[in-house]
From TrEMBL:
TM region positions: 29-50, 62-87, 93-114
The UniProt record lists the keyword Ion transport: yes
Keywords: Copper, Copper transport, Ion transport, Membrane, Transmembrane, Transmembrane helix, Transport
Keyword Membrane: yes
Full protein name: Copper transport protein
InterPro entries listed in its UniProt record: Cop_transporter
Any GO molecular function: copper ion transmembrane transporter activity
Entry's family note: Belongs to the copper transporter (Ctr) (TC 1.A.56) family. SLC31A subfamily.
Gene Ontology CC terms: plasma membrane
Membrane topology: Multi-pass membrane protein
Subcellular locations according to the entry: Membrane
Main subcellular location: membrane
Amino acid sequence: MHQKMKSHMSFFWGDATEILFPGWPGPSFSSYILALMLVFVLSVAVEWLSHTKFIRSSTDNITAGLLQTAMYATRVGMAYLVMLAVMSFNLGILIAAVAGYTIGFFIFGSRAFVNSKISYDSKISPSDEDQADLPPLNC
């Protein structure tokens, strides 16, 4: 028998929630932890995709444009999944999403690591090798 879940319109704390699909993550605490990990990984992946250079400078413009568009669509799709998960109004999901975006930015976008020389300041024009394929994600 399918249990009826209460729809929350304010933030709440607890593992009895539905996150993206009816019946998911399920009634067990372990499935809730798995959902938290999924939201965290999706958030990190959005930041990784936002700060990664996949397209070589030798790639022709049409191919580069198609790859860039596919990467953009993937990033936006993943970001919307995270947003929809946060709209479950579960504080654990919100914390997992913010932590994922924060850790992802720290690893892939901050100056904490030597390989991160990406700058989007309009006054500074870094070489093409230092720029990511996608512009920063704006809310």
